[in-house]
Amino acid sequence: MKIKFKNSIPLDDSTLWSKLKAGDEKAFSLLFEKYYEQLLRYGNSFSSDTEKVQDCIQDVFADVWLYKNTLNENAIVKAYLLSSVRNRLARIQERDHIFRKTTSTDSLDFLFDFSIEHQLIIDESTADKVNLLNKNINLLPSRQKEALYLRYHQGLSVEQIADLLDVNYQSANNLLHRALLHLRKEWNSCIPLLLLLSPSVL
Amino acid sequence: MQKRNNYTEIEDFLIDESFQSWVRTNTDNGNWEEWTLENPKRAKLVEDARIWILAMKVPSDTLPAATLQTALIATWNKIEQKETLTKKEVKLWKYNWLKSVAAVLVFGLLASWTYSHLFTANNSTKIYNELIDENDEGLVEQTNNSNNPQIITLSDGSSVLLQPNSKLSYPKIFVGNERRVYLSGEGFFEISKNPKKPFLVYANEIVTKVVGTSFRISAFSNEPNVEVVVRTGKVKVQSNEKLSNSNKNKEIILLPNEALRFTRQNSTFNKITDITKDATLVHSIRTIEQLSFDFTDIPVSQIFKTIEQAYVVNIEFPKDKLKDCHLTSALNDQPLPEKLKIICKALGNNTSYEMNGNQIIITSDGCN
């Protein structure tokens, strides 16, 4: 059973964060409930082992509670959690790589695929454009895809993305820029063709 | 809402939450529809941005509340576990601290007593810290704060599997005619044979003396007993003569699968001739003591696997090249470096190993 608190105004992250730091268990639970699912989805895009990802996220939260005194008061909670989960998974992955004796020492690969909002598309020409763009987005290098995800889905700033991916601001900016540039180029070369082929234009 | 008049790129729209919700859920709180129609150039941009959002869907199926609650409970359990772990450490420290105070008091009393009785040995309980203070060989201390056993190799080729919450002090290089190490906590020792240089483990009140063998010592300063369990070879245990007067020169000899328990409270030794009948010992047996290293025509990959399990290490080796290699070898009595050396030698001249912490890399061109 889920307990809902009546008349309670949803508290913003920074209030919950400082309450948590002061030892408020409810604030901890609220943040957990708010972010667990997103973190799970983010984590699952790096690893197919859901159980491992769950375990990892729970460890991240456990550490948040255990080391609450040392947490930064002004942290952006979402960015902090995303980044903690990512780092922890990277560490585990690295360990597993050694253990399984694979030669690859790559860090995390963002294996997530964006999907299409089918139910919002009414006309065929839009559908074609969306399909094409979706295909091209999913063909992007994993890091660019991850940057897009963090920027446009998690709403992180370029600075926060740079922190999270452990690169400097310029590199993070380049990642996003290159992704968009590439997509736009593909887009411009294909759309006229699409328009020609699409019967709805005729 | 004013800032949208300056939007010139698709990206500007993509990060606008109000725009996103207009596209996704058709809730037009920002009057996007109207704003779009104001300007045809703008309409094109908005249409493109809309397509981007439609093409970048992230599934948002909600987790069942029960799953979320289970996860939350699991997290609290983890917190509890980790908390008790740290508390234990604190407790141990407190205990040690109290012990030191007690030791100082006892020492004070005994000093006066000793003085009046002309240097008869004192009876104070010296613990690890005091023992290593007496050693002037320039000791290295290794502490295992992790949750897994840690392998330590010593300069004489001996290896020690150190259990969590334990520490071992040892000289970088053994000099003199004795090899002396100091243990607090638990470790499994595999000693390289050298009859000329006996190996001595100082663990709380007892000293364990061997020439070449394998055995385990459990000597946590916060536990009432000190235990020695012998796996192979012969081991002599005596109380640390510097520390006690009652058991002076008493030496107990242990053979394989025998054990000894030293009860700290009354300084008594208790020899256990059948370790399978002792309830506490049966439970405390570690993986490494259960595994057999007597291999008869066993694939080398299997042997490596056994070593990985026993020593909690990772072994990297050329799988293809060693695919058809089988070995017959009795490695029970050997420290880890010796085991690896023997395996490499058996495999052929071009096989060698490299050990770095708990990483072992085998290079090989295949077996003979």
Overview of the molecule:
The complex is a heterodimer of chains A (202) and B (368). With 202 residues, chain A is mainly α. Chain A has eight helices and no strands. Chain A has helices at 13-21, 25-44, 50-66, 77-100, 124-138, 142-153, 158-165, 169-197. Chain B is of the alpha+beta class and 368 residues long. Helix content of chain B is 35%, strand content 27%. Chain B has helices at 10-14, 17-25, 32-37, 40-55, 65-116, 128-134, 279-284, 287-290, 300-311, 336-347, and strands spanning 139-144, 150-153, 159-162, 166-171, 179-190, 199-203, 206-210, 214-219, 225-232, 235-239, 251-254, 259-263, 268-272, 294-299, 314-316, 326-330, 352-356, 359-363. In chain B, strands 1, 2, 3, 4, 5, 6, 7, 8, 9, 10, 11, 12 and 13 form a 13-stranded mixed β-sheet that branches. In chain B, strands 15-18-17 form a three-stranded mixed β-sheet, with helices on one face. A two-stranded antiparallel ribbon of chain B has the order 14-16. In chain B, strand 4 and strand 5 form a beta hairpin. The longest helix of chain B is centred in the first third of the chain and has 52 residues, at 65-116. Residues 117-125 of chain B have low confidence and may be disordered. The interface between A and B is large, with 41 and 35 residues. Chain B: This is FecR family protein. Chain B: Residues 152-236 form the FecR protein domain. Chain B: It holds the Pfam family FecR. Chain B: Keywords: Membrane, Transmembrane, Transmembrane helix. Chain B: InterPro entries: FecR, FecR_C, Ferrdict_sens_TM.
Largest sheet of chain B: 13 strands, mixed
What string, H for helix and E for strand, traces the elements of chain A in order? HHHHHHHH
Helix content of chain A: 55-70%
Q: What is the CATH architecture descriptor of the largest domain in chain A?
A: Orthogonal Bundle
Strand proportion of chain A: under 5%
- The SS-based structural class of chain B is alpha+beta
Distance between the termini of chain B: 78 Å
Q: Kindly, what is the distance between the CA atoms of the first and last residues of chain A, rounded to a whole number of angstroms?
A: 56 Å
At the third CATH level, what is the topology name of the largest domain in chain B?
A: Jelly Rolls
Keywords (chain A): Sigma factor, Transcription, Transcription regulation
Family (chain A): Belongs to the sigma-70 factor family. ECF subfamily.
GO molecular function, one term (chain A): sigma factor activity
Domain RNA polymerase sigma factor 70 region 4 type (chain A): 137-183
